[in-house]
Amino acid sequence: MGCLDGKTALVTGGARGIGAAIVRRLATEGAHVLFAYRGAHDAARALVNEVAAAGARAQAVCADVAQSAQIAALLAACDAAFGPAPNLDILVNNAGIGSDGQDASLKSGSEELFDRMMAVNAKGPYLVTQVALPRLRDQGRVVNIGSISGKVAQHFAAGYAMGKRALQSLTFSTATQVARRGITCNLVAPGAVATDFIAALRERPGFDETNAKTTPMGRMGQPDDIAGAVLMLCRPEAGWVTGNIIEAAGGLAI
Ligand code: NDP
């Protein structure tokens, strides 16, 4: 028996990386998980099959969280999967993009990249949360995946850091709006995690070594490290924990 038996969960950006680890973890603990992805059809299909083979339940929907029409379709899929609202126990706003090797600096980052990052990293979670809240059952959970970048100065990735700081603000607004319903909202802020997200950075000579050296716990994060923090917040015991930023970064930004 898992700690999330009988619960339902919606995870954005669930086909790969940290999102996929969260889908696996929540499903393994008994939740019926619906996850969204943008273009990784094969990875989404493989994950659905992997979860089913483990005797758990996950479904996938292709939906771009920067597009309100696609968010509406995502929530319609949620109703189809879980029945009439309120039908949701857990929402994880995980989908996010970085610069993917492009110049995202304050000095010379492009307006187009800034707009795209803000659309996915800040507007997306805002819109998804807006339509998901009426579907959340009392005692539910909202977990936003932010970043250490939302805490520390990062002139080399200023637009990304701004979006993650905005997500902290959304976390506080959400937490107070739903507190009387016993619903919690927290943000998990990872440090560097070994996924495609930082593949371009990791091609730089010495990146992994420097990261390990500057991280007090001496290694780079893995997707499961972040999924563990999300599960911790979704467990029944965490019902009084809300409006917090939980750093899952091996002590990186202490
Ligand atoms: P990945 O690039 O490995 O995965 C990102 C996921 O988000 C993919 O499933 C992708 O879908 C999905 N996605 C991207 N844009 C959209 C969109 N517009 N609509 C719907 N889904 C979308 O990244 P990570 O797993 O590493 O990152 C997950 C979260 O963690 C992000 O919010 C990121 O900012 C944050 N984070 C990551 C860190 C790291 O070092 N990896 C550090 C700190 C924070 P698809 O697969 O279909 O393209």
**Helix segment tally:** 8
CATH class: Alpha Beta
How large, in whole angstroms, is the Cα Rg?
17 Å
Q: Specify the structural class.
A: alpha/beta
Order of helices and strands: EHEHEHEHEHEHHHE
Strand residue content: 15-25%
- Mean pLDDT across every amino acid position: 97
Characterize the largest beta sheet: strand count, sense, and whether it forms a barrel. Answer: 7 strands, parallel
Tally of DSSP β-strands: 7
Unreliably modeled segments: none
Oligomer: single chain
Helix content: 40-55%
Which cofactors or ions or other ligands sit in this model? NADPH dihydro-nicotinamide-adenine-dinucleotide phosphate
State the end-to-end CA separation: 36 Å
Please indicate the count of domains: 1
The CATH topology, please? Rossmann fold
Descriptive keywords:
254 residues, 7 strands, globular, single chain, binds NADPH dihydro-nicotinamide-adenine-dinucleotide phosphate, 8 helices
Reconstruct the topology from this structure.
Layout: E1 8-11, H1 17-28, E2 32-37, H2 41-53, E3 57-62, H3 68-82, E4 88-93, H4 111-132, E5 136-145, H5 158-178, E6 184-190, H6 199-202, H7 207-214, H8 223-234, E7 245-248
Parallel strand pairs: 1-2, 1-4, 2-3, 4-5, 5-6, 6-7
Helix pairs in contact: 1-8, 3-4, 4-5
The protein binds NADPH dihydro-nicotinamide-adenine-dinucleotide phosphate (NDP).
